[in-house]
Backbone:
């Protein structure tokens, strides 16, 4: 990849900001040089061989020029003139021969919208992340996690163009396909769920087909420690990893693994109307006598754990202890 020399405008390798011819000229005493840079009026980033990742202060730009163009260390400088045409007078130690070096140059700044801001202003996006699940605090917390991943990207090329809140959940429009895929996978790895990707052609650029993708994340309507009822049997959700859920039967003796899409019709118990915590009053073998949190009467439940509290579920008129392992 190439960029342009900030002195003469000649194309140079992206690893430098000045061509070899101009670098040789900078050693000529008394040569007044003109350095041209661009500054984005929206984000403040500067084009100095390449666009900076964030807003750059003028002093930092001048220091970079003195280091990369004039090969100076321990440099000092003074500026005069307006912000678009600065005269910079400098002195410092040459990093090439250790001699003192002084001179001046003009720093000419023009305004130009950087590629990232151009995309933002044009509502550019390459991917839509569809976040689906039961609306509520859990889905909102997952949304917060997902937005944190996007905003925490070290690359300015990754940004959230817009977000729509709809009946089924949220649609997030993202600037980069690959980052959208990675962020969606991190959501699934952390919270469980299913992932589906589709793509559609949106145009051509220099003979290459351009695609946008839609990544659909579907979060199950249950989470770890919730209780499921399937075919008149009760299970505790022990873990959800990706699209694989591990369930513990209420007998506490066996576990079963299911893919989320293979789960048959089930009912979820989680709220205080059905599941509560009870104090253990005393024990006899594998029987725990508890203070029933539903009617505040003493009740016996089968529970082998030695803890002083037990989670219980009310199914009809029956109260059962929820196994833990």
Residues:
């Amino acid at each position: 990849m190439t960029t342009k020399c900030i002195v003469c405008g000649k194309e140079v390798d992206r690893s430098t900001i000045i061509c070899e011819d101009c670098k040789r000229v900078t050693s000529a005493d008394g040569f007044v040089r003109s350095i041209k840079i661009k500054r984005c009026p929206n984000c403040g980033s500067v084009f100095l061989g390449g666009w900076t990742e964030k807003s750059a202060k003028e002093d930092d730009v001048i220091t970079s020029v003195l280091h990369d163009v004039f090969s100076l260390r321990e440099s000092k400088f003074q500026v005069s003139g307006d912000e678009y045409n600065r005269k910079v007078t400098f002195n410092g130690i040459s990093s090439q021969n250790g001699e003192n070096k002084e001179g001046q140059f003009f720093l000419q700044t023009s305004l130009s919208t950087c590629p990232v801001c151009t995309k933002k202003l044009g509502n550019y996006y390459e991917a839509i992340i569809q976040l689906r699940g039961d609306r509520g605090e859990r889905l909102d917390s997952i949304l917060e996690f997902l937005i944190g991943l996007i905003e925490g990207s070290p690359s300015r090329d990754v940004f959230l163009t817009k977000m729509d809140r709809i009946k089924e959940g949220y649609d997030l429009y993202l600037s980069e396909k690959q980052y959208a895929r990675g962020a969606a996978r991190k959501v699934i790895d952390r919270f469980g769920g299913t992932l589906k990707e589709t793509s559609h052609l949106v145009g051509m650029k220099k003979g290459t087909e351009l695609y946008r993708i839609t990544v659909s994340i579907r979060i199950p309507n249950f989470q770890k420690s919730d209780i499921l009822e399937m075919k008149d049997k009760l299970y505790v959700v022990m873990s959800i990893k990706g699209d694989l859920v591990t369930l513990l039967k209420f007998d506490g003796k066996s576990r079963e693994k299911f893919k989320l899409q293979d789960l048959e019709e089930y009912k979820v118990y989680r709220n205080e109307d059905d599941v509560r915590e009870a104090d253990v009053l005393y024990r006899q073998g594998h029987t725990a006598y508890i203070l029933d949190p539903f009617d505040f009467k003493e009740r016996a439940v089968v529970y082998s754990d030695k803890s002083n509290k037990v989670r219980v579920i009310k199914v009809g008129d029956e109260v059962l202890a929820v196994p833990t392992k």
About this structure: Residues 222-260 form one domain. The chain has four domains: 2-113, 123-218, 222-260, 272-325.
